[in-house]
Amino acid sequence: MSVRPILLRNLATHLPSIEVLKVRLALRHTLHYALTGIRLLTGLSSVLRTFRLLVHLDLSPTSVAGGDVEQELNLCDEWHRACPSLKRITFPSHREWFHRFDRMWIPTDI
Q1: Model-wide pTM > 0.70
Q2: Is 96 helix (H, G, I), strand (E, B) or coil?
Q3: Using CA atoms, how far apart are residues 56 and 98, in angstroms rounded to an integer?
Q4: Tell me, what's the pLDDT at 36?
Q5: What's the confidence (pLDDT) of residue 27?
Q6: Are 85 and 99 in contact (CB under 8 A)?
Q7: Less Cβ crowding at N or C end of the chain, within 10 Å?
Q8: DSSP string, 45-86
């Protein structure tokens, strides 16, 4: 099922102990003001703030054009600031990023 960011916020409010979340974002009508490609996912920061225990965010089912290593790394840093418990992120590119003990994000291609 495709979800919109507002539904994710409601999930975080009503199910605060979520640690792993795998979603396909419905982006047709949301975040339309943002730049195209993976950068439009920047808007998730405000939603991720509401997840207090989220460790793994998997967006691999989401269809988003574009996205390179540098853009994904920037999103990892931004999302980690919003959600400090986040340690693993899987992007629509199927590249996974892991947050190491030294506060560095390391990519692993799947």
Answers
A1: yes
A2: strand
A3: 9
A4: 54
A5: 63
A6: no
A7: N
A8: HHHHTT-SS--EEE-TTS--S---HHHHHHHHHHHHHH-TT-
Q: Indicate the burial class of 31 (C-beta count within 10 angstroms; 0-12, 13-18, 19 or more).
A: middle
Q: Where are the domains of the chain?
A: 2-109
Q: How far apart are CA 100 and CA 24, in angstroms?
A: 26
Looking at residue 65, its pLDDT comes to 65
Are 63 and 84 a contacting pair, CB within 8 Å? no
Distance CA 8, CA 86 (A): 15
Using left for φ > 0, alpha for ψ between -120 and 50, and beta otherwise, residue 58 falls in: beta
Mean pLDDT by 10 residues, the chain (110 residues): 80 92 73 54 87 94 78 93 95 92 82
Q: Provide the 8-state DSSP code for 14.
A: H
